[in-house]
Amino acid sequence: MSEQTYILRTENLTKNFGSLKAVDDISIQVPYGQMRAVIGPNGAGKSTLMNLIIQKTPLSAGKVFLMDKEITGIPTHTISNLGMSKCFQITQVFTSLTVFENVRMSLIVDRKKAYNVLPVASKYLREEVMEILRLIGIADLADEVVKNLSYGDQRRLEIAITLAKRPKLMILDEPAAGVARKESYVLMDLVRELRDKLNMTMLFIEHDMDIVWNYAEEITVMNLGQFVASGTPEEIRHNDFVQKAYLGG
Length: 249
Ligand code: ADP
Ligand code: MG
Description:
Layout lengths: L5 E12 L2 E7 L2 E3 L3 E5 L6 H8 L7 E6 L2 E2 L5 H7 L1 E3 L12 H17 L6 H15 L14 H13 L5 E5 L7 H18 L2 E5 L3 H7 L2 E6 L2 E6 L1 H5 L2 H7 L3
Parallel strand pairs: 4-9, 4-10, 7-8, 8-9
Antiparallel strand pairs: 1-2, 1-3, 1-5, 5-6, 10-11
The chain binds adenosine-5'-diphosphate and magnesium ion (MG).
């Protein structure tokens, strides 16, 4: 595969916290349009890896490429303008505002960062916000104050807020965490539907193996900061480490 096949590549990504190698020499490639899961036991370094990719955490060594452009060391908001955003950074949700206001805020911030102008055509903006809410399936909740939302709908809102940044690649750190089993499938259906409708790529951490088997097209396994394996669900199912760690084999 040529390099252009990949929307995201990491080369030898490493993060040391003191003497701990939280992420140890990780090189992964994510093809355009893929649903990619990253799995591994607690403390494997999955969240740290995502934060290195999005440049939220300064790296100790290595490089990150987004659409073949090196983004190592670039500020997270610039990376968002380049097409990669991470979901579920709770700080971006204003719980005393409505669903509509939250998504509008995200749109305004995104446009300001991208073009250094505030969008003034509020009617146009309103339509854009509603379009995102319809896409996510929460248009009927537009005027609801966020703190009154169910947990599942809050997660949906967070996806809507991230979508307002128009990412080509969305990173999701345990999208189904804390959500009831049935609701977690609804959420993952939504993630896959967005991937299909908007030609996106989805890179998600997940600990629920039923979700992983059902939604991942490729699975990357980490342990103790290190790369263990990457492959199709079928390949990973037969991996020795995965057998021992997850399947009791
Ligand atoms: P995972 O998401 O796979 O559960 P993390 O990436 O959160 O794992 O953590 C990997 C390791 O790095 C863990 O041992 C964790 O305690 C450690 N770690 C994570 N963040 C920090 C930090 N800010 N300072 C020190 N150690 C950290
Ligand atoms: Mg984590």
